[in-house]
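Hi R.,

Here's the chain you asked about this morning:
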Amino acid sequence: MNFVARAAAFSILFATSIAAAAEPTIRSLNVRGLQVGGTTTIVVDGDDFGKAPKLLLPFPAKQSLLPKSTEKQATFEVSLDGAVPPGFHHLRVVADGGVSLPAIVGVDRLPQKVLAKDPVEAPVAIHGSVTGSTVFEVPLVGKANQKVMIEVEAERLGAKLRPVVHLYAPNKRQLAWSWPVRHLLGDTRLEATLPADGTYMITLHDAEYAGGAPGFFRLKIGQWNYADRVFPPIPSADAKQVELVGNANVKVDLPMKRAPFAPLPWPAEGTWSGLRPFAETGTRPELAAGDSLAGMLKVGSYAVTDRFTKPFEESRFRIPAAPNARMKFEVFAERLGSPLDVALVIRDDKDNVLARAEDGPGTLDPTLEYVVPDKTTIVNVGVVETQGRVGALAAFRLAVDPAGTPPLPDVRLFTPTSRLAIPAGGSWVVPVFAERKGLFGPIMLSNGGTIAADAEGALVTVKANATDAAIQSWTGSASGLMRPVLVRGHPLEKFQPWLAAEIAVAPTTAKAADFAIEWRNLPDSAGLVPAQKLALPVKVSRLDPAAPVRLTLLSSQAPQTDPNRAVRMEKPIELGAKIGDGEVVALLPAELSAASYDIAVLAELLSADKQRVLATAFTPVKALPVRMPIAIKLVSPPKLVAKLDPKTPTMAEIKGEIVRSEGYKDDATVTLTGVPPGVAAPTATVKANETAFALKLALPPSLAAGEFALALSASGVTNPMQPGLRVKSREIRVALVVNAP
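And the predicted structure, written out as tokens:
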């Protein structure tokens, strides 16, 4: 090939290598709010915006990209009609490389403004930033007897500012101040009446004059309606309305079919701003103070809701009970966003205190277990307000359960993925994890995936099915329950949970064939052996063979706080120029609780400086079984029946065999757990050349009759390179039935 031809070929190759576009990134916004019924100019600073970026919003909006926008700064004019619901919403940028991570913005009817030095007039929303010991000042033109609210939105927008706001009169005298409060998620609000005409001064600083970055905020000034909570906090299944707790205190209708954490419609009357109210769906009967508790003994688990209107007040409940029953009483107040710090007391009919509980584990809310006295059918339970904090927000919920009753089956679904950038003809692999609470069956996901029974999660393949960016919300269903898939770590997950359920899916201008990864001769017999390594060979193809590629291992194992308990890569892997074949070595922990795990490898095409990801590809997902090197085969019956001797210990024997595989040939230790109190737990060592074992239990004559659930397991060092790491077999359940003499 001559020089001209080589040069032409190089120019074509270079053009294809730079054609891939990275996902856009938002660094900062000049304003973190949009005006309903008005037009807002918003300047977005970031990277990889391309030539024609767009804003992705969860509601209809008229937007135009202003001239002189660049790859790193885009200016938009955004017009919203009057039907857009006020509240907190996500704003994203869509470009050739996909979609950015979201920024939270406040949406209401206030004009949005970046502060200049000139005084402002209400209503207005001022935008700025405070970090370190900075004090931000806003001059406000006010009139005599004018009522104003001043509210800071910072932590609710994802900032690290802990805002304290002061209002000073024209004569420099402080009129009011406020600091962070729990029900505003660490933000603050004050209300005041201005005494005279003049220019007032609003100052804003961090609570400790040590504001972290980012320190952006939205300072609202004026008059509006807000709803900080709803009452009751968890309405009953047949409830028709809830009260909005704020400065309007109006009631709104609940939807006929309401999903968990469904946002409620704003009332038609009023100018609304702030957190949007929502109603959480309860899983037990929900009663109000004053409702009759007759018949609740047969129901078992239920809850009663009330709120305090007087300092140090006590709400008392006469709870139906069965004599000698063990009951559990638990108060929910702080965990519902209430300012309360309460005590839980039990009294007799003469008002004597029989039991008292204060703070519970990790919370100010108390929990108390109580054994009902003999011949007693009513328990007098009191919830006492201890700090003088009363008002519309001072609500609590008393849950009543028979002690030892397992909670109703439930599950929480989450993912670390909040955006997907899918090339034409391509797909994206999304990890979805399940935190199970007594629900162990399969979970069907609305994005096409399934979390197998007892599995920790799944890797779900999502294919491109649209030409425009869109916001999706996924759910999982099992045993009649439906739960949203939430993006873990969202700052408003607790207070606006539907925001944490928003996942942005955007197409890219790239083609899947331009950059791809596939398995390279992965054996069909591949499996996961605890405490061992697994080599995962892959092959990468790309238009520019000189472009570096980074490989990352993905698995359906739930995230672990201890890396030694995680399925993880042995070392970082990067494929250099002209290298297409690679191998990811997975280190496997000693404990893998599920029967199988999904495995995939993520490939990221990097820029020449390795600072940007230009394209993304995934191998097909493989479900690899867990192959245990040590197992137990039970020889004796799974249910042992022993009749106690009134004079001497009764012997019960469990027999079994050790089954070794995956190259394991050494000693194994057999242990038994769950034995009755007062009975020694036996162990046995099975030598390398042996398989059989027998465990003997000596049951004393004084042992209480009953049925006991025993767990049998074996362990051993299966990897000589890690002598301190023992692999434990799956547990075998054995029932021990003890009959009285």
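The longest helix spans residues 3-19.

Let me know if you need anything else.
M.
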